[in-house]
Amino acid sequence: MLNSDPTVFIVDDDDSVREALQFLIESVELNVETYSSAPQFLDAYDPDAAGCLVLDVRMPGMSGLELQENMSTRQCGLPIIIATGHADVAMCVRAFEGGAFAFLEKPINQQVLLEHVHRAIEQDQCNRTGGPPVQDVLARLEQLTAREREVMDLLLHGRSMKQIGRQLGISLPTCSKHRTRVLEKLEVDNDVQLVRRMLEWKEVSRQQS
Predict the structure, then answer these.
(1) pTM above 0.85?
(2) What angle, rounded to 10 degrees, do the helices at 172-185 and 191-208 form?
């Protein structure tokens, strides 16, 4: 039976971060459980518990990404929001390929976190009841021109601006303008966020198919 009273699980080895996140999430009347390590969470976690997981990456012993892989192996479908102060493209890709619901960089904007938490809980409820996620995967992609889509695809493959310009036969300033428009239309600030957004949409699309 679906738990109608979901819980937000927080795993972070920093006491002050755990307390701040707990205070924030409880302020919107959601249940919260906090853990200082990945093993502590695994020992206590009940797969039947509904909600979502807010997970730090860099922790002593088992890292956040290792915990994510462990839960995937156990076929635990709890949506995971990754939070890190040391983000890079490789980490972002690994997190989303492992099924992360979202990837946020510290310091985390409180409103953004709460929005992701509510969406993750909604996703968990949909997964448990068999309903489809209520998200539009293609809306912003359809705003891109053909050239912007080419630039974006090459960015996602790790190409530099110079490499993209040479491959597409356009100048570096023109290439940079296309990149700027891609970021603006997809509402991201940099290439790491672009990767995060595209992999998130890819995962949503996969779940809807």
Answers:
(1) no
(2) 50
